[in-house]
């Protein structure tokens, strides 16, 4: 895990946190949150992203093959920048809160690209919560590809991983639509840091896409979410 930050690092963290919604590239959701410390103890550095949508079809420009190809390469460029950031900054955890790729269009070469990227950061634990565009179904890359040992993929039944004094909870879509109230039922531990990673919607916005009540999130110290109204992180 990461070491205790200096005062300067803490200031940098809060600055990054406040500016995270500005970190975008070509309209893609590219959100970095770096956590250096927490009131329950010195913990880690982490990155939280969502909605890469690798191999999305770019319907609005589908008649322009050259531009579509360039946009897809830009997507990879953004993701590789995230991986490089994790590697260069000794990031402990990478949270991917859904829609990493487009299940209906994703190419084998793209999955190989992802696997190669994750292999570049063996000391970073990667937690993926499948979304409605990349559900964990029998024909998915999550089910049929050999991801590295540092990658953990949540299923429709919520899972829990313990790293140091941190509990990481998560669940993901097992179909293109998903409804669950499991977050309400999760039991957190007050003497440990509790983090949630998932994909969905907030407060009844779209019930068939994992509706999450904001009140359910108060027991978590951090919620790494992607909702269908906006990408959201929640600090306790």
Summarize the structure in short.
The chain is built from 5 helices and 12 strands. The chain is α/β, with parallel strands linked by helices. It has a single domain, classed as Metallo-dependent phosphatases (Purple Acid Phosphatase, chain A, domain 2, 4-Layer Sandwich), CATH 3.60.21.
Overview of this protein structure:
It is a single chain. Helix content is 24%, strand content 22%. The protein is an alpha/beta fold and 236 residues long. It has a single domain, classed as Purple Acid Phosphatase, chain A, domain 2 (4-Layer Sandwich), CATH 3.60.21. Strands 7, 8, 9, 10, 11 and 12 form a six-stranded mixed beta sheet that branches. The chain has a four-stranded parallel beta sheet with strand order 3-4-5-6, with no helix packed on it. Strands 1-2 form a two-stranded antiparallel sheet. A hairpin with a 3-residue loop joins strand 11 and strand 12.
Helix content range: 10-25%
CATH superfamily: Metallo-dependent phosphatases
Global outline: globular
- CATH T-level fold name: Purple Acid Phosphatase, chain A, domain 2
Question: How much of the sequence is in beta strands?
Answer: 15-25%
- Termini separation comes to 21 Å
E-strand count? 12
Largest sheet: 6 strands, mixed
CATH architect. name: 4-Layer Sandwich
Series of H and E elements: HEEEHEHEHEEEHEEEE
Number of domains: 1
Q: Low-confidence runs (pLDDT<50, min 5 residues)?
A: 1-30, 228-233
Assigned CATH class = Alpha Beta
| Helix/strand class | alpha/beta
- Work out the helix count: 5
Indicate the radius of gyration in whole angstroms: 17 Å
- Give the rounded overall mean pLDDT: 78
């Amino acid at each position: 895990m990461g070491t205790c930050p200096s005062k300067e690092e803490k200031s940098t963290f809060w600055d990054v946190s406040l500016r995270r919604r500005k970190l975008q590239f070509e309209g893609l959701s590219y959100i970095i949150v770096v956590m250096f410390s927490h009131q329950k103890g010195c913990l880690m550095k982490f990155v939280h992203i969502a909605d890469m949508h690798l191999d999305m079809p770019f319907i609005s420009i589908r008649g322009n093959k050259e531009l579509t190809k360039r946009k897809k390469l830009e997507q990879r460029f953004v993701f590789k920048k995230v991986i490089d950031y994790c590697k260069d900054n000794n990031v402990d955890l990478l949270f991917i809160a859904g829609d990493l790729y487009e299940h209906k269009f994703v190419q084998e070469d793209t999955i190989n690209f992802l696997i190669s990227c994750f292999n570049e950061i063996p000391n970073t634990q990667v937690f993926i919560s499948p979304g409605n565009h990349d559900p964990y179904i029998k024909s998915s890359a999550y089910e049929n590809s050999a991801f590295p040992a540092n990658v953990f993929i949540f299923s429709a039944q919520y899972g829990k991983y313990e790293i140091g004094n941190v509990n990481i909870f998560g669940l993901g879509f097992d179909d293109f639509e998903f409804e669950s109230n499991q977050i309400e039922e999760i039991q957190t531990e007050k003497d440990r840091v509790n983090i949630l990673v998932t994909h969905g919607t907030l407060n009844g916005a779209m019930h068939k896409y994992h509706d999450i009540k904001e009140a359910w999130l108060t027991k978590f110290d951090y919620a790494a979410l992607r909702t269908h109204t906006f990408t959201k992180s929640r600090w306790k």
